[in-house]
Design a protein that fits this description.
The chain starts with 8 loop residues before the first helix and ends with a helix. The protein has 14 helices and eleven strands. It has three domains: 62 residues; 252 residues, Aspartate Aminotransferase, domain 2, CATH 3.40.640.10; 117 residues, Aspartate Aminotransferase, domain 1. It is an alpha/beta fold. It binds pyridoxal-5'-phosphate (PLP). The site of pyridoxal-5'-phosphate has 14 residues, from helix 6. This is Decarboxylase. One of its GO terms (molecular function) is carboxy-lyase activity.
Length: 478
């Protein structure tokens, strides 16, 4: 019989080894590549747009085409000069672990289908619960595709446990610095605009507590039902951690669900400085962390932790007849009962293998290195008369702008100038360095969670910025 999809052993080996070689070579030469790639839809269409081919072609030819056209047309988020958004430093062990999980195509939904996959998810979640001082016996969690899905899973759970079926008067509170995925999740859940309170932040970008208390009190007077506060443990803009203990006190007093979005900053718990800043994180009812950010995992792996695992099963378990044979006993967790997905890839494997291989110690050192590097960057910037710090180094994020002492540039000029500096750096493709807006100022933002990034990489990029700034100001004079 003609094989449909099978390759011979020799073909599989030669194809597979070729791909391993390509990945290794990417790791080896990453520094000599450019982190930025830009292409228009038209350019991409010219290369790729075609009907699904009826006849196949040699596997090597397809691979060559992909290597020539796909990989170079993507930003390299693990590049040491990828400073923007939240970089994805990744690591080689997890990269290979993901290949293994995919190669064996392990179904990570139910215990009976793969007891070891469920067990590794339980074990690695226990490691995380312990890291964040959550109760390991009663607590629980689930790996998701990312922070957005973890936040969504958390808010479904919060609503279910706090409001039951009727959430028509329920009110949810978050700050204007909370990540957009929270608003998305709230919308997915079907809350109306009138049920969302976006609370302004103070000059340090933290939840304004007084304003929050005012809103809660007003809502109570109106007969509404406050049910949840979303705090940020490391905002994406500035790395700022909300006053977690104060917010936890409010939640206790007001009987509100306390969700902490630690997708960006949660991992900093592994460093001394981070764990101090994250004081109070252990008081959350639910906590989002995002291993594909600062736990150095390749995409996709996010994670939700909860104080009480039964909250998840009470929210998500359904008992359809076709799954009755795989139910098993309670300690044998079916993760399809803990979240939205039934069929799930085996995300725990990469987390497990990388921590077993490198040891937690390596993660701790890398995260501490990142935090220190951002502080060094701040020192460097403060020593220069050209730069102004807008938000100091916080959990490896720093925001600054070009604002030379002697020039007295207007706010409008500064905005235009900093925007243009960033645009020229990106256009050079040497570094991925984009802007954000803080207190109505356009500022340059660096997120330094890549352990491959050194102070020299940063200095090179700052020199480039200085050079462009002078160029731009010269051009504007003409
Ligand atoms: C990145 C991020 C998210 C979203 O996580 P994804 O993994 O991109 O879905 C949510 N919250 C914060 C604070 C983030 O930084």
């Amino acid at each position: 019989m003609k094989p449909f999809f099978d390759l011979s052993v020799e073909e599989m080996k030669s194809y597979g080894y070729k791909i391993v070689d390509l990945i290794v070579s990417h790791y080896e030469h990453i520094e000599s590549k450019k982190p930025v790639s830009t292409a228009s839809r038209k350019e991409m269409d010219t290369i790729f747009l075609q009907e699904a081919p009826e006849k196949g072609m040699p596997a090597d030819k397809v691979l060559d085409f992909v290597m020539e056209n796909v990989m170079p047309n993507s930003n390299i988020s693990s590049h040491p000069k990828a400073f923007s958004f939240v970089p994805g430093p990744s690591n080689f062990i997890s990269t290979m672990a993901d290949s293994l999980a995919t190669g064996f195509n392990i179904f990570s939904g139910g215990w009976i289908v793969s007891p070891a996959a469920a067990e590794l998810e339980i074990v690695t979640l226990n490691w995380l619960l312990k890291m964040f001082n959550f109760p390991v016996a009663q607590g629980g969690g689930i790996f998701t595709s990312g922070g957005s899905m973890a936040n969504l899973t958390a808010l479904v759970t919060a609503r279910r446990i706090k409001c039951g079926d009727d959430f028509s008067d329920a009110i949810i509170y978050l700050s204007d610095q909370a990540h957009s995925s929270n608003i998305k999740a709230i919308r997915v859940l079907g809350f109306k605009k009138e049920q969302i309170r976006i609370i302004p932040t103070d000059i340090e970008f933290k939840f304004s507590i007084n304003k929050l208390k005012n809103e809660i009190a007003k809502d109570r007077l109106k007969g509404k039902k406050p049910f949840c506060i979303i705090a940020s443990a490391g905002t994406t803009n500035t790395g700022t951690v909300d006053p977690l203990d104060v917010l936890a006190d409010i939640c206790e007093k007001e009987n509100l669900w306390f969700h902490i979005d630690g997708a960006y900053g949660g991992a900093a718990i592994l460093s001394k400085k981070g764990s101090k800043i994250l004081q109070g994180i252990e008081r959350a009812d639910s906590l989002t962390v995002d291993p594909h950010k600062w736990f150095f995992q390749p995409y996709e792996i996010g994670c939700l932790l909860v104080k009480d695992a039964s909250w998840l099963s009470n929210t998500f378990s359904e008992k359809p007849a076709y799954l009755r044979d795989i139910e098993g006993n309670e300690s044998e967790i079916n993760f399809y009962d803990y979240g939205i997905q039934l069929t799930r890839r085996f995300r725990a494997l990469k987390f497990y293998m990388s921590i077993k291989t490198y040891g937690l110690e390596t993660f701790k050192e890398a995260i501490s290195y990142n935090i220190d590097l951002a502080e060094k960057t701040e020192d460097t910037l403060r020593k220069s008369k050209n730069w102004e710090i807008v938000s100091p180094a916080t959990l490896a994020i720093i925001n600054f702008r070009y604002n030379p002492l002697d020039l007295n540039l207007s706010e409008e000029t500064l905005d235009k100038l900093n925007q243009e500096i960033s645009a020229r750096v990106v256009a050079s493709k040497e570094a991925l360095l984009v802007t954000t807006i803080l207190q109505n100022q356009i500022v340059i933002r660096m997120c330094l969670i890549n352990p491959k990034t050194t102070i020299n990489h940063i200095k090179e990029t700052l020199e480039q910025c200085n050079k462009f700034a002078i160029e731009i100001l010269e051009e504007w004079k003409k």
